[in-house]
Amino acid sequence: MHKTAYVLLILTTLFWGGNAVAGKMAIGHVSPFALNFLRWVVMLLLILPVGLPHVKRDWPVIRKNLALIMFLGAVGFTGFAAIMYKALEYTSAVNVSIEQAAIPMLIIGLNYFLFRLTATWLQIVGFTISLIGVCLTATHGDLSRLAQLDLNIGDAMMVIALFCYATYTACLRLKPRMHWLSTAVVFAFAGLCAATPFLLWEYAQGEFFVPDATGWTIVLYAAVFPSGLAQVFFIRGTELIGGNRAGLFVNLVPVFGTLLSVLILGEALQGYHILALVLVLTGIGMAEWSGLRAAARQA
């Protein structure tokens, strides 16, 4: 069970890391909120033929929990990504990478505040080690750059985005039991509904533009991998090992994003990339070992 969760969560963060690269490549090819809206449209078109029968079968459960499901889909599927895409117009990728590393600690805090779920000291230590790895990645191996960050409105927007995803992850424990295809369909529908006001605002501001060929390629990637497979994998991984432990894997996103930038965008691979990956994996390993011990004691 735990090995399955690890594979799912690593693939999730790999796809999300690819989304960061796709977001860089999208500039000038598709506007931010158009990308966010269209990826849910494409995902629904792809998944509805196989997911609709499960939605019909699970409809009594869905209808009973519709408000909660719509909230989770809106906050988790659109809230974080839409705000992050817009924030990147104002702040740097370095800032965003460092700020995303706060998500696991926010999840731990919200789990305690909402559900009185506590983290072990070793999990906190593991988070700290992973955070150092993320900072090494984001600052290109020079931690002194942390003192030189230029914070602006984009960074304030990212705080809202971080709380969106942390809230979504912490509250996934409340999701009713239903088939994973039903979950994907209804969450994507909720995400599409939440994405519509952002798209209308972008159009009203005169900032909307139709994707070109490259833009559509990015939309297709975002729909299939970060929006489709990654979200389903993250939901299942969270079900298997819990929000606190699953949330720590988010620290792999900036590391994978950097490594994919090396492979796809031709950026140079540096020693600090390898060190950062080792630190992040060490931190996750420590936290997981502690979580497994705690679960064994409760069994």
UniProtKB/TrEMBL annotation:
Principal cellular location given in the protein's record: membrane
Pfam families, A to Z: EamA
InterPro entries to which the protein is assigned, alphabetical: AA-Vitamin_Transporters, EamA_dom, EmrE-like
Bilayer-spanning residue ranges: 36-55, 67-88, 94-114, 121-139, 151-168, 180-201, 213-234, 246-266, 272-292
Organism: Chelativorans composti
Domain of life: Bacteria
Record localization: Cell membrane
Domain spans labelled EamA: 5-138, 153-285
UniProt-recorded name of the protein: DMT family transporter
Membrane topology: Multi-pass membrane protein
Keywords: Cell membrane, Membrane, Transmembrane, Transmembrane helix
Transmembrane as UniProt keyword: yes
